[in-house]
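Weekly puzzle thread! Below is a chain. First person to post its structure in token form gets bragging rights.
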Amino acid sequence: MDTRSVAILGSTGSVGTSTLKVVQRYRDRFRVSGLAGGDNIELLAEQIRTISPVVASTKTEEGLNRLKKLLGRRSETRLEYGTEGAEAVATCPGTDVLISAIVGAAGLRPTLAAARKGMTIGLANKEAMVVAGALVSRTVQESGARFLPVDSEHNAIFQALGGAPRESVRKLILTASGGPFFRQPELDLSSVKPAQALAHPNWKMGSKITIDSATMMNKGLEIIEAHWLFGLSSDRIDVVVHPQSVIHSMVEFIDGSIIAQLGVPDMCGPIAYAMAYPNRLDGVMESLNLTRTRELTFFEPDNERFPSMDLAREALQKGETYPAALNGANEVTVQAFLDEKIRFTDIARINREVLLSYRQTSSKTLEDFISADTWGRQKASDLITEKGTN
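Winning reply:
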């Protein structure tokens, strides 16, 4: 395997830092061409000093100015900021693989820019497919770009499919940890505080995705993403709660066979698989000791207590831009919960109100999808404000 050049959108987040761990461990296989970081300017500066990418970008102009001060004049890395900076990282010449891991809809434009150029994209930003899955899918078909899923569940499905034709597949089975509250049926979810919801039992992730896991909206978004990635309708995409997070997802074929992908819960595994595909890297993760895995349990999702998956299915069935409106609302409501402006149960309630209020107009351009996402954000904000004044 030749040395591959990797660009990372979201280099200071959990997936981004895990990607850099893989790069540093396999220095003879990978080098870094570009980094786009978030608000942690100190960490981004450290990454640039260590790696010396061709280009790096910050979220804001203020962040860019802070970064320049930290790096001084000796850095040879070209520094950018904002959406244009992220696009410069995503399309950096000579890049073999883009790891798209910016959280939320902010990763959409740079990911789409890379897709237009026909690049290979390791997709860890599910919102790109949720907000504009129809547009992104059309773009990929036209440009010849290739998506390699990095989310553990979609990566597992990709591995389990093994290139099998879609007509041989009966259904996809996404596994869910259930988050911190699934096995606490006696808990009053309306009383849950942010610290409780952020205490994920299996994974260490960013705050937004951790709250999505607690509400199970992450599985709803993954259903939408799986629909666009693998070309199956939502009624052929199931979810089972698997608290041990050992089986990352499964594929059931038309002959009744089920193929599952197992492994320890370590994001370095799917990241390395996407970066090295179709090859595998030796010793990426700790081996799964099956004799110590005492039990593997599975449960039906509780859609009454956790209605977010049903909302996602409904959005997907209503029209191409409805998932964007739902995603925009969810980003606002999750942040409002983290800021203790609304209750945990208000997240799904407000998201539902937004979805029921939205009406699609057009789904031809990127602006149409972004407009739907923006509408969902504003409508959710208005509902939160109304709640505060009642």
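Puzzle host: Confirmed. Bonus trivia for everyone else. The CA atoms of residues 2 and 312 lie 41 Å apart.
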